[in-house]
Every structure is written in structure tokens, then in C-alpha cells.
Amino acid sequence: MTAFITRCCKRIEAGLPRLVLALLLLTAAAAQAGSIEPKRAALTPNEDGYALSAEFSLDLGNRLEDAVGRGVPLYFNLEFVLERPRKYWVNEHVVTRSLTYRLAYSSLMRQYRLSTGNLHQNFGSLAEALRVVGRIAALPVVEKDVIKPGESYEAAVRLALDRSQLPKPFQVDALTDRALHVEAKVLRWQFTAPAVAQ
Asked: Which of 77, 85, 88, 171 is most exposed, with the fewest beta carbons within 10 Å of its own?
């Protein structure tokens, strides 16, 4: 009986390093989840109304970076909302503007292609493409006649990975695999329209 227990203990000890290694790999994979964090955002007046400028820090995580490098397209949604605060009632919705980016890698051209509507741009590296996705400059979002001079508004902007556009196997994996999650934060700020329209 003692010999049997000794053999079992040796087998458990032999398998223990593998178990510890597997747990460490799972922990490391969980730590590789991505994030999209807004750094700054502002509304600036132009001749037609107001334009949005914003900057985001994008980190997809290792698993999604590898997936896009293998040809899986990623879709990002930029969402902008402007509301007028009201006392004793919910905020009045003024405008919503959204924009979708598609990022894909072409192994034939060895370039990353970023598309927005009919506009396309090619990049030599993923870092360059993500830098452009994360920088919004002078995007028209509000027409002049919608904003009342001198009034205060609440603005919010968010850039997020659209997981519903991922291929079906990735959508299923994204339910349980933390490495396929990209946390997207919302940036909110107060905006007061200039008293004299420019």
C-alpha cells in the first residue's frame, strides 16, 4: 500500500510544474486584455457648425494584434453624443454622430488598410494604423443652427471595438476569453457654446 501511495505522489509531483505553468499562462492571457482610453476631446467652431477633435490611446492586446495580422478585419465605432441638461427631467438629446473604421491586413501588399466609408489609407505597421484610428481631427458633428449661443451642453465621446463584426468563431470566444476584450472608456465634458457665433 505504501509503495502505491509513493508512486501516486511522485506522479502528482511530476504533473505539478505543468499545472503551475498552465495557470501562469492563463493569468498572463487574462492580463493581455486590451483597452481604448480617451486622452482628450474638444468641440471647436467652424464655418458650418462645430467639429470634434479627440485623441485615444489604443492597446488591442496580443491576441487581437495577432488576429488582425493574420487577416481578421477589426471594426471600430466612434460615437459622439451631445445633450442639453434639463432640471427635473432627463437630458435633452441634441445630436448623435457615429463613424465606423475597418482595419484589415493585406498579406499580399504587406500593409494594414484603414477604411472609413469610401476613404482608404494604407500603413506599413499596425502601430501607425492604430495611431490614425486614435486621432480624430476636425470631424463635423453639429450644425450651427442646432447649438444655441451661450448655452451649456454635455458632450460624450467613445471609441470602441465592435465585437459583433468579428468572425463568428471569435464572437463565441469573446464571451469567455478575456484576451479578446477591449475595454472602452467614455470621455464626458461640459461644453458651453460661445455667446457670439463665429
From this structure: 88
